[in-house]
Design goal:
By secondary structure, the protein is α/β, with parallel strands linked by helices. It has a domain of about 180 residues: Periplasmic binding protein-like II (D-Maltodextrin-Binding Protein, domain 2, 3-Layer(aba) Sandwich), CATH 3.40.190.10. About 15% of the residues lie in helices and about 20% in strands. The strands form four sheets. A four-stranded mixed sheet has the order 2-11-10-9. It has a four-stranded antiparallel sheet with strand order 5-6-8-7, covered by helices on one side. Strands 12-1-13 form a three-stranded parallel sheet, with helices on one face.
Length: about 280
């Protein structure tokens, strides 16, 4: 059964849509989940990504120290657990010994040290580096599988930040097509489909049911919704606001209503008229 995800929120955008599909008797392992993804991702570099279209793909390709469950709770990711000092200024993460990159390389604590340093380096110009502003962080690999993050002050938001793409590890080679998540990149066509396939090196691959995921960019929400209705998409979260009520009425138990916290904004080019006039 296909699933339609609709989000009710004044400022809303889903991070990851859920779906039920797989009718017809064939194994989920042999099927491809086709997702409408709104616009095309600007980049699949987790340090430079700044749009929801990229985030949707990156959370399948990568995994941070901390992950997010289907109901929005923070859960262990590459770190199988962590502890916090009494003063709240030191976090110690124990990494999984079976965590690997999609090419089979081992993931070690130093990968996170290097990646977090890159994320916050001025030369990287990471759009979400500002999340670390105001708190001095010192990241230390105590061993291959123990990572310590020391803070200049108590910062309870740290685990949430570590679940975001800005804190995902990047491969030492610099190749951003090598991830560490449940899926690995197979192909990307400019302006077209992004295809991911189950990552056999993922530490929890036995629980990954669907064999592959295809993301289709669409610039028109009405067109995407019509693609869903015609069976071209298995899932969509891009529902025209004027069609939400009819979508719920027509698709019944395929609809999923979920809140999401996000921000829409409009940027003006101050170098062009009429905005160039101070």
């Amino acid at each position: 059964m296909r699933s339609l995800t609709i989000l009710f929120s004044l400022l809303a955008m889903p991070w990851l849509a859920s779906c039920d599909f797989g009718g017809g008797g064939s194994s989920l392992e042999d099927q491809t989940l086709v997702r409408g993804n709104g616009g095309e991702p600007g980049t699949l570099d987790p340090l430079l990504a700044d749009d929801i279209h990229a985030f949707n793909v990156l959370v399948d390709m990568y995994e941070g120290l901390v992950a997010e469950s289907a109901n929005g709770e923070l859960i262990p990711g590459v770190a199988k657990g962590w502890s916090i000092s009494e003063d709240g200024r030191t976090y110690t993460f124990e990494l999984r010994t079976d965590a690997r990159w999609s090419n089979g390389d081992r993931i070690v604590a130093q990968d996170f040290v290097r990646s977090l340093e890159l994320a916050t380096a001025p030369d990287t110009m990471a759009p979400y580096a500002f999340l670390f502003h105001g708190v001095e962080t010192h990241v230390v690999a105590e061993s291959d599988h123990e990572l310590e993050i020391r803070l200049s002050r108590r910062w309870s938001e740290l685990p949430f930040i570590l679940s975001m793409p800005i804190a995902f590890p990047v491969h030492p080679s610099g190749d951003r097509t090598i991830g560490n998540g449940a899926y690995k990149l197979v192909s990307r066509s400019p302006g077209g489909q992004i295809l991911l396939q189950k990552n056999e090196h993922y530490w929890d691959t036995e629980r990954v049911s669907v064999g592959s995921v295809a993301y289709l960019p669409t610039s028109d929400s009405v067109a995407e919704f019509n693609m869903y209705r015609s069976g071209e998409l298995d899932i969509t979260h891009n529902i025209p606001s004027e069609m939400v009520q009819s979508a719920v009425a027509q698709h019944g138990n395929e609809a999923r209503l979920a809140p999401s916290l996000a921000l829409y904004y409009i940027a003006f080019d101050l170098t062009e008229p009429p905005f160039d006039d101070p």
